[in-house]
Specification:
Helix content is 45%, strand content 12%. Helix 9 crosses helix 10 and helix 18 runs antiparallel to helix 19. The chain is an alpha+beta fold and 433 residues long. Strand 4 and strand 5 form a beta hairpin.
Length: 433
């Protein structure tokens, strides 16, 4: 064979090899556990030499908007999407997601029932949980001890307010930090949960919005007053990551948010107060129903992907027991993605490293999306209502609540505008005339 023929053959083989490699495009959120997953990309690529991972990492609100637009328009930008318990059942029913069929070694029965059920439609799994969460109270025990405060396992909102007043010492420490940044899965995830505990609901059994009801007014008034008196400045712009940074700097006396935060605020590499944190269940006022949310950031395959096999391989890897073990060995057992598997909570190494494990699991186990409000409601979901219209409603209401917190409008005016926006969407959706 001549040199030219050899080179031509070699070039052809290289081109063929390149063509067979799959670029798997993954849309994900910029939370700590996802960033760790990206760092472990070489582990997956080494085991799957034909697949290259391409990451699109976005802020929470932007991610939701991008993946929703892409899947609804069949845009085909992504092979794997990070979505949650709100989108999965709705999109699964519409045929927008591929059913996940992991192999026996994956052990689907090891998934926590709350997570598996929330990500399934008619018993079929449409997304696999990367990490799961509820919400709980995380507080500085050194500060509460000094102030003579002892929290019960599930405190009332009034007890939380009284504690915030006692430990508030700005600018060193703010009594309490809570989400204020607008978004249906942002400030409204927190506020919906809080409102539930005041006896509120999004819709009555006729699907009429209830945002001007007394429980909503009581909850939002309490929230605005609490943060104005004892929260950090600029709370109306704070989401999970902003508050996490404040907490790790020692600036927050208390924080009610996703249980997943516990693994970061107890990590001495990230947190200046890692050894001073304690936990209680989400606070309540009129009822304990719906006082802590249920969520999973999960990985799903849009129906339009041309790389379904590679996507299934990646999701199986990223949500497996082996992946959790890999993170445990690489980064320490206190930093593994939690809230997904029974085996994680049964692992003695995890129990030893994760001081929050019992509180987190109790919060997840007690959250009930099928019965989360004091009055009977027609929807499923704790911190959201699992209907397609909720996304637009939650965004509109979130903007009003953030404006009320910033002092731009009164609570009454914000709730009136919210009720009007919700009513408009529900009429448009044909729920009533």
């Amino acid at each position: 064979m001549t040199l030219r023929a050899s080179l031509t053959l070699l070039a052809g083989l290289c081109a063929a090899g390149t063509a067979s490699a799959v670029d798997l495009v993954i849309a994900t959120v910029n939370n700590g556990h996802m960033i760790e997953m990206q760092k472990l990309t070489p582990e997956f690529e080494k085991a799957n030499p034909g697949i290259k991972l391409k990451w699109v990492t976005l802020e929470e609100g932007t991610l939701r908007s991008r993946v929703t637009t892409d899947i609804a328009t069949k845009g085909g930008q992504f092979d794997v999407m990070t979505i949650g318990m709100y989108e999965t059942p709705i999109w699964g029913k519409k045929g927008w997601l591929m059913e996940l069929k992991p192999d026996a070694a994956y052990d689907v029965d090891d998934l926590l029932p709350a997570m598996r059920n929330g990500l399934s439609v008619d018993g079929k799994l449409y997304a696999a949980p990367f990490y799961g969460e509820s919400s709980m109270l995380m507080y500085r025990k050194d500060l509460t001890d000094k102030a003579g405060i002892t929290f019960p396992e599930r405190p009332t909102w009034e007890q939380v307010r009284d504690a915030a007043a006692k430990i508030h010492n700005p600018p060193n420490v703010y009594g309490i930090c809570l989400r204020g940044k607008p978004g249906w899965g942002d400030n409204m995830a927190f506020l919906s949960t809080m409102a539930n505990s005041f006896g509120a609901q999004w819709f009555d059994m006729s699907w009429k919005p209830q945002l001007e009801s007394k429980p909503w007014k009581d909850a939002v008034t309490f929230y605005v007053d609490l943060l104005k008196k004892y929260g950090p400045p600029g709370s109306s712009a704070n989401s999970f990551n902003e508050i996490l940074a404040l907490y790790n700097e020692g600036k927050c006396g208390m924080w009610i948010d996703a249980t997943i935060a516990a693994s970061f605020i107890t990590d001495p590499k990230q947190s200046k107060v890692a050894d001073k944190v304690a936990f209680a269940q989400g606070p309540y006022s009129a009822t304990e129903k719906g006082a802590n949310w249920l969520w999973a950031w999960a990985l799903a395959i849009p129906a339009g992907t041309k790389n379904a096999d590679a996507a299934q391989k990646f999701i199986t890897w990223a949500t497996s027991k082996d992946y959790i073990n890999l993170v445990g060995k690489t980064n320490g057992w206190g930093r593994v993605p939690t809230g997904t598997r029974k085996s994680t909570y049964a692992n003695p190494e995890f129990q030893k490293a994760a001081v929050f494990a019992a509180a987190e699991k109790k919060a997840i186990d007690t959250a009930n999306p099928n019965d989360s409000t004091l009055p009977k409601s027609p929807y499923v979901g704790v911190q959201f209502a699992a209907i397609p219209e909720f996304q637009a409603i939650g965004i509109a209401v979130g903007q009003q609540m953030s404006a009320a917190l910033a002092g731009k409008v009164t609570v009454d005016a914000a709730l009136k505008a919210s009720q009007a926006a919700a009513d408009r969407e529900m009429r448009k959706g044909g729920y009533y005339k």
